[in-house]
Every structure is written in structure tokens, then in C-alpha cells.
Amino acid sequence: MTKTIGEIVAKDYRTAQVFKNHSIDFCCKGNRSLEEVAKKNNLNLDLLSAELNEVQEEGKGDRLGYQSWPLDLLIDYIEKKHHRYVEKQSTVLRQYLDKLCRVHGQKHPELYEIKDLFTTSAGELAMHMKKEELVLFPFIRKMAAAKQSGKTLGTPHFGTVSNPIEAMMHDHDHEGERFRTIAALSNNYTPPEDACTTYKVAYALLQEFEDDLHQHIHLENNILFPKASELESQLSALV
User: Fold this and answer.
1) Is residue 61 scored above 50 in pLDDT?
2) Which of 9, 55, 153, 155 is buried most, with the most CB atoms less than 10 Å from its CB?
């Protein structure tokens, strides 16, 4: 069976950098094969494979082994690392973008669109994370506890875990598209020649925010959600 790029990154997150270098979306669009993305991006498949193999053989980088984590631990990590990051940095970045628009907006009108896109994204992500924390994540935790205790689990009000998962992945797609637009408007977060320090810091923070979002979405789309669906199937088979 051919692995998807999401599965490749799920096995070894260091490979994410290779995909980032070639502007390949491994999180929202992680269900594509290596052959498919190589063809779409006009890349030599053998060279792309060689780059991935080199990274995997280096033995460097952060290999936290997310695939082997219990689902409740993975959820805790997502909430404490990524959800809290979004909450904190959204406020910081909105302040920076407000200032940039006031000072540089007339000469760089793209800043207004970047600000609007980010403001919308921050609001949507806040609602998205609340839905995860109040609906989806608690149910996945219940499934994990049921498996450990051997107890049966009742049917949730949303029917099957695939329903909220589908909704969350739909949200992820929207945020991926929004940040692709932000990256394009900012010339891949490259400050203009007349940029002041605030300008440079704001763009660096935007890029950091996007990088964190990529890992955040990857952990959910490519690891947590498939494992949650698999666990639900296992529990259903026991009833």
C-alpha cells in the first residue's frame, strides 16, 4: 500500500521540512501520495524521495513519536501546546497588524487584507478549538477510557465520531487556504526593503504562526482523527 505524505510525516515529523521546502501542504492535503505531489509540483520523484530518505537517516531533529502516544495524551499535548499558542499569539499578532496598517498601510495596502484575513482566522480558530475541547476531544477521551476499562460506550448525540471529525477537517481546509493567501500577499513573509523592526517581527510571527498551525493540523488530520475513527470501529465490534 502506498503511503500518503501525511502518513510519511506522521511517522517522522522531520520530513515535514522537506515538504515545506517545496511548498507542499502535508497537513490539510496530507491524503495525497508522494507520486501525486511530485507530479503536481513538477518535482523529480526520485530526488524528492532521496531528500526524504536523507532526512530520515540523519538521526537529527525532534522525533517525539506521536504515532505511539495514547490518544488522551495526544489530545492533552494539542490543547496545551497548540491551542494555547493560538490563543496567546492571536492577540499579539492582531496588535502588530493593527500598528502596521496604521503606519505602513498607505504605502503597502496588502497589509489591510493580511490583517482582515488573520483577524478572521483568529476568530474562526477560537470557535474551532472550543468545539474540539467541548465536543470531540471529550468523546475521544471517553473512547480511550472505555478501551482501557473494557466497558461499553453509548452512542454520542452526533452519531459517529466521523461527523465532528469531518467538520473539523473542513475547518482546517479553510485555514490552510487562508494562510496560503496570507503567505502570497506577504511574499512568503518577506518584509519589504523599507520595513521597520516592527514590520519584520510581525512577518516573522506570522510565519511562526503558520508553521505551528501546520503541525497542529497535521497532528489532528493525520494521527489523532484516523486513530479515533479506528478506535470507534474497534469498540463497535465489541458490542
Assistant:
1) no
2) 9
| 88-102 residue pLDDT tens | 999 999 999 999 999
Q: With 0-12 CB in 10 A as exposed, 13-18 as middle and 19+ as buried, what is 69?
A: middle
Reduced to 3 states (helix: H, G, I; strand: E, B; else coil), residue 159 is: coil
CB atoms within 10 A of CB 151: 11
Q: In whole angstroms, what is the distance from residue 83 CA to residue 80 CA? A: 6
User: Taking a C-beta distance cutoff of 8 angstroms, is the pair 220, 78 a contact?
Assistant: yes
Q: What is the pLDDT of residues 91-140, one digit of tens each?
A: 999 999 999 999 999 999 999 999 999 999 999 999 999 999 999 999 99
Of 181, 177, 186, 218, nearest in space to 205 by CA = 186
CB-CB contact of 165 with 132 (8 Å): no
What's the helix, strand, coil split of the chain in %, to 5?
Answer: 75, 0, 25
| DSSP-assigned letter for residue 125 | H
Q: What is the DSSP letter of 85?
A: H
Instruction: Give the global pTM.
Output: 0.79
Is the distance from CB of 75 to CB of 140 less than 8 angstroms? yes
The answer to whether 228 and 165 are in contact (CB under 8 A) is yes
Angle at 128 between CA 117 and CA 74, to 5 degrees: 120
Over residues 177-191, the pLDDT tens digits come to: 999 999 999 999 999
Task: Give the C-alpha separation, 140 to 215, whole Å.
Answer: 20
